[in-house]
Amino acid sequence: MADEEKLPIPPTFLEKVLFYTTATFVLLATFSLFAFLFLVPFVIEPAFTTIFMQFDPVAALCVTAQVKHLIGASNCSWASCREGCTKDLYECTQIRVNYKLGYPPNITATEYETLIRAERSLRKDYDYDNYESPLESPDMDMENQEIPDAIPTGLQGNDSEWYFTGARLFPNVKGCGYPPILNCTIFYGKYKPLGTNYSCYYSRVDPGLVITELDMWQNTLNLVYAMAIPIPSFIISVIYLTFAYFKIYNTEEESEQAPLQSDAEAMATGDDGKPTTPGSDTFREDLACFGHQLKMQLANEKSKEGFESNSPPISNSASLSGTKSSFVNA
């Protein structure tokens, strides 16, 4: 019987469902939080930066104009490509490009040139064909001057074929990534040779920033996935765990403590429902009753001890012979 009383009561089906549901939401909240913290620097922040930089969806024509390979942390303020977005730079390769604006496929080159002229506020009534540049008729002093090694950077004038010269080239808005998505060896092999022509995308906010790949639809889709899955999962998990803690488990604890509380209240109050105190009648009656029962118990024990000490010991053989003789006499 004692072993049967010590056996634990098996949980019911509802208790099992409640346990596994709570464990699932705890794990979901934990993984959602860590997933969001992981996605912030690798997906969410670059996606927002790509949107805020306002890259022109129409590809421009880029030409590699300058390549520098530098060594030293003080010289490497930026690099065209980095495998790893958190490591320090002690050796870097910087690629600068010149680019001219492209034009959408639904308009002609003449119409696009008109748009560019309007954008640069060129006057249509000015005779640009008869304009003579001082560079076309240089004097002897200018011919003897050496061309500087540094190329000019920034927005160019109307007489230049380039819209911007000396722009920094990156594979993406952060200029870094991880294999196999980004391989800097392949990137440098494709864009490092001087004079290489390729399509690129410039930023309207910072025209000196040029990237080689742009997919706004995929960028927006990655941003939606990175925020629409972890954040709602974490919020739903927290709401369920809060509800379970304050409603479900709290109700079970109250139901388990209800019998103990009722016994304590019964002990603390008398038959008339009034609280039992040392000065109350109920307390005195209970104390007198307990004293009377204690005296009766002590008296019974003393009488038993006295009877056992006064009675002589009787052997088993004498008792048997006495019993037999009584049967014979009868």
TrEMBL record:
Region feature (Disordered): 257-280, 301-330
Transmembrane segments annotated in the record for this chain: 17-44, 223-246
Domain of life: Eukaryota
The UniProt record lists the keyword Transmembrane: yes
The UniProt record lists the keyword Cell division: no
Signal sequence interval, chain numbering: none
Gene Ontology terms describing biological process: regulation of sodium ion transport
GO annotation, cellular component aspect: plasma membrane
InterPro entries reported for this sequence: TipE
Record's keyword terms, sorted: Membrane, Transmembrane, Transmembrane helix
An example molecular function term from Gene Ontology annotations: sodium channel regulator activity
Compositional bias (Polar residues): 308-330
Protein's name in the database: Protein tipE isoform X1
Species of the source: Vanessa tameamea (Kamehameha butterfly)
